[in-house]
From TrEMBL:
Pfam families: ADH_N, ADH_zinc_N_2. This is Putative quinone-oxidoreductase. Residues 16-326 form the Enoyl reductase (ER) domain. It comes from the Eukaryota. GO terms for molecular function: oxidoreductase activity. InterPro entries: ADH-like_N, Chloroplast_QOR, ER, GroES-like_sf, NAD(P)-bd_dom_sf.
Amino acid sequence: MAAKTMSAVQYEKYGGGAAGLKHVEVPVPSPKKDEMLIKVEAASINPVDWKIQMGKLRPFMPRKFPFTPVIDVAGEVLELGPGVSTFKVGEKILGLLDFTNGGGLAEYAVAPKTIIAKRPPNMSPAEAAGLPAAGLTALQSLKSAGVKFDGTSKSSNILITAASGGVGHFAVQLAKQAGLHVTTTCGARNIELVKNLGADEALDYKTPEGAALKSPSGVKYDYVVHCAPAVPWSVFEPILSDHGKVVDVSPNMTNIFTSLIKKVTFAKKKLVPLFLVPKEGELEFLVNLAEEGKLKTLIDSKHPLSKAEDAWAKSIEGHATGKIIVEM
């Protein structure tokens, strides 16, 4: 049985960064229909978490204050709500909490049954918590570009920017699984790391070649998965093949407008803004790869819940290598 109250981390208003996080004692939530109560073992911070705090999704998110952020979790099922039959009490799981309700920075959380998967024994809680949002974003970005994972993908060239980051390091591994030639950008200190993940070429993003995103071997890219801060379309256009496609995992309004122009003018080269919408079976696909040793979660750092503000600040600073984890 869960306790009646739990430790959690919340913020009470927009802004404030890490200093705006408060450690509180709140009631343990109860699962409703199609939900389950989980004992959280680890949670992972994503940039969208602190962007919501900054007010980037105002007035839609958060729904109300105070708000307990984070949706990436791994833990153990403690209680099943009505309508949940695919999981059992005591099972180890990983997945996404409801985006609008959050709740991951707490000892207990309520999770919808739809975006939860059983955790294989060879995945630690930290590795599992780091997978859902970033792994699904990487998978959907590749699918949006046209990459197939059924063995029918043509031999193609792909560029993955910020390849040592949360989304990027999963995208590199998945692109190699699909049989692509992978070029990456990252910081100089991570070049060997991304090559070990499967990159065929790696560019230091601070060099002139890296800033121009030009392949060392001179190839044009059929696909680009852009995980770095926004760059103008004029940088992408000359490095793409005739029907090249750029998928932007964190699009701004300028890039969204550019994508619409490309669409209505039937341009051969396309820009696609990606908005994560988890689909049935995709998380299980990633978990199966992880269980088989074909997909691994890079852990940048681990922080106890009592120091969640340190993890928050580190994510805001940027340049994390892999995922930032909070352990309960």
